[in-house]
Amino acid sequence: MANYRAPLRDMQFALVEIAALNAVSALPGYEDSSADLVEALLEGAAKLASDVLSPLNKSGDQQGVSLGDGGVKTAGGFASAYQEFVAGGWNSIAGDPAYDGQGLPALVAAAVFEMWNSANMSFALCPLLTAGAIEALKAHGSDSLKHQYLRKLVTGEWTGTMNLTEPQAGSDLAAVRSKAVPHGDHYRIFGQKIFITWGDHDIAENIVHLILARLPDAPEGTRGISLFLVPKYLVNADGSLGDRNDVRCASVEHKMGIHASPTCVMSFGPSLGAIGYLVGEKNQGLAHMFTMMNEARHKVGLQGLGVAERAYQQARDFAKERVQGRPFGKKGGERVTIIHHPDVRRMLLTMKAQIEAMRAFCYVVSADSDFAHRHPDPKRRIKHQQRVDLLTPVVKGWCTEIAVEIASLGIQVHGGMGYIEETGASQYLRDARIAPIYEGTTGIQAGDLVGRKLAADRGAAMGALIQEMREFEEYLGQSEDLELLAICSTFASGVDALEQASDGMLKAYVENPTLALAGSVSYLMLVGYVCGAWQMTRAADLAFKHKSADDQESFYGAKFAIAQFYLAQILPKVHGLQIAIQSDVSAALSLGEQWF
What we know:
- It is a single chain.
- By secondary structure, this protein is of the alpha+beta class.
- Among the domains are: 199 residues, Butyryl-CoA Dehydrogenase, subunit A, domain 2; 147 residues.
- Helices cover 57% and strands 11% of the residues.
- It has 20 helices and twelve strands.
- Strands 3, 4, 5, 6, 7, 10, 11 and 12 form an eight-stranded mixed beta sheet that branches.
- Strand 4 and strand 5 form a beta hairpin.
């Protein structure tokens, strides 16, 4: 298994030139986020990722976690690596300075988070959940809870979890049965939660669980769910740790991948009831939890990007070293490395082009989040928040689905060696496969995109996105360069497909929501491919301004060629998806259950 090396120049191109780091750094409160500071930060993160986290990736996969009398024990080296992670301030990069955070933009944090997931996806899942807990507590917690818990969560000294689903509920949170009984100034929580990522471990001194439960008089369904904070160890008034709370890990799941990330069945209140504290308002727990979930969904999209990059690096390095066969069409001569074979080149470029599109897309949406929080114009803040809301399910759904494809291609590049565990290629596919499932499956993301985002404002936010694409298309169409014009023409066809599919999907949802949802995943993927094309078209324009006409082997020459490949070989998928969306999908619903 090759060691991870952060693609710093590619990341800086996406950060600075595509996602406009300078514009983000000009926002109130972000003035210190200069390009030089960000460059130094990325170099430090890259060193930690490659020297500390990456070497634990394979050993963690092989060793996994174990559950004993003292709770969950993590794989060797994980506890010390986490302490180094916390000591370096890496958990607090985008944290609120009021709680010892560094206050850097979400855009910068996105790039660093990509590195953690490329280096060690199992490890990165822990700070991912902590970040979500921070956002939920910051948005909805009382002043007392913020004072007691936020600082330790922001620094990473304590970790956070999200406790939603139960054995009988799955993704149907209306079926949640965990209960919260009032008891003085707190509550006693009783219930069992499943699939709790990093629900118990030995790498931090306390774990802060955010859990959905019902009050005794709560109405049925999702309207009767409240959100509670339940610490593993109770916290004294002076901030020190007190008694162990009545919450235990009942078992750990044996999974296909992410073996070094404990996925726990958590038992709350097996004895007297776990002491918990209400977060936000009663019976508003699901709405409050979505603050945490949306944060997690965006980061899971970045997770897909990270593991895809690692799978690509593994395949690329193997292709440059593996000697097999001779150049096509030549008799005799020396045998060559497989990167000289046309189909291996195609696979590697398919991987790389989609990774660069994913990276640019994820970073741009992260920048939108920064503008939504810090832009001085309230109207601009609303506009950018609408963009974030619209595209979060696409970031999560499209990036994770593409990550699985890329990890699978990585195995194909290896040939038979990819199917052998020793090479390490298969771990990336096993790890990547969870990302389209947790924090809401791709079908749930697609339903959110169509039902809650597209239909809620009758396509206004999508229309604004398409209009922005059209404006860039018009600008690029004024170029005198034939290659740029060809890229622009292909991009325009993708925007046409997006506009037509969006209009059709909106009309279908109004007439028959069930049928519209049957085609919603195809629609989500179409949106993702076109958003990727938008960023790759912008990358081509930026690269064209830098590259020398006689130096096609330069960094910017390569960027231009990669963009050309994406537009020519990847974007055309949208036309097939458009046909599928516009066709009759009723067969999926009309076929009798007995025929499946």
